[in-house]
Amino acid sequence: MIGVVTPDELLTTTRTVRKRLDLERPVPREVVEDCVRIALQAPSGSNRQTWQWIVVTDPDQRAAVGAVYKKSCETYLESQGAAGRLFAEDPERSKVQKRVHDSVAFLADRMGDVPVLVLPCLRVASGRLPSGNQAGMWGSILPAAWSYCLAARARGLGTAWTTLHLAYENEVAEILGLPEDVFQTALIPTAYYTGDTFKPAPRQPVSEVLHWDRW
């Protein structure tokens, strides 16, 4: 059921949900289909609409994808670019980063237990990614994937946008039986969330990131 939420609230409180995903409560198929139906209204390059959506609910399939994700996430968590190692010189920011780091590790151990795993994909006719500018290509699926997250939030579902599994994209493609011309964009675990709601996160002041006319 869709809750009453303003557009601004929806856009500022659609957070990455990891520790608050309810792993026990089933997500009805029709709710996921509604979210994808909303997502299909997003723009795409030349209106091609070459997106494809893989929704994984089978326990064995979820476990297999989760195992690949955990393997990739373990490498990430040990890297210098891991969330918990960033902004170490800023004590307040460092606290936030360490919480993010812990939540990433938490989800890595449980990805295969999340009721629904959604993988937005893009079908490329040539079967090969272009060597040049790819912004337009990915821009034909990323708005739709984010619309899915917003639609899920409006229905009381939590999501997390992650791409860590793409380090082993071919392994996941084999698990899911993807054709060679279908490329994965993200992995979006989806579940009802625990607790009441979410609030906007601290962000930089607009004055620090906004440039008018030139840098």
From TrEMBL:
UniProt keyword terms in alphabetical order: Oxidoreductase
Domain Nitroreductase: 13-183
InterPro entries: Nitroreductase, Nitroreductase-like
Gene3D superfamilies named among the record's database cross-references: NADH Oxidase
Superkingdom of the organism of origin: Bacteria
Keyword Oxidoreductase: yes
Pfam families: Nitroreductase (PF00881)
Keyword Oxidoreductase: yes
The family this protein is said to belong to: Belongs to the nitroreductase family.
Classification via PANTHER family: NAD(P)H NITROREDUCTASE YDGI-RELATED, NADH DEHYDROGENASE_NAD(P)H NITROREDUCTASE XCC3605-RELATED
Protein name per its UniProtKB record: Nitroreductase family protein
UniProt lineage: Bacteria, Bacillati, Actinomycetota, Actinomycetes, Catenulisporales
